Amino acid sequence: MLDRTTTAFSHVKPGDTGFVSGGLRDFFLYRDLGVADATHGKVIAHLVKANEAPEQGTGWHKHEADFQIVIMLKGWARFMYEDKETLVSAGDCVHQRPGIRHYLFDYSPDMEYLEIVSPADFKTIDVEPVCAIPAPTPWASA
């Protein structure tokens, strides 16, 4: 039987939460979708979008998480997963296995993705570089 005491119903509309800075990366904006509160920290779901051109990227890191997926909604991003370059385009879904070393190093100005991670308070740990990183694509000046 479904345990209704450990989670709550949640319905967040676009106007309920806005994109804000102060998330994991300064060059991205984040929009909370209410899932962390509804699941009492079991899962987080947020939208992430580009805010500034890629200069250094995320650096090599891994997450202490049980589950993580990225669903690209708009634009594209280039990641290194271990030593494999991976282009993630709108419509793609990536399951990042627990502990995989990765580096998001390039993305389009319109990049926006949905990220779902468990637990909500997952940790990010810097790791030693796995390989060289290609240069990001310069954004056209406005």
TrEMBL record:
UniProt cross-references to InterPro entries, sorted A to Z: Cupin_2, RmlC-like_jellyroll, RmlC_Cupin_sf
Domain of life where this protein originates: Bacteria
Residue stretches making up the Cupin type-2 domain: 53-104
Protein name in the entry: Cupin domain-containing protein
The species this protein was found in: Caenimonas koreensis DSM 17982
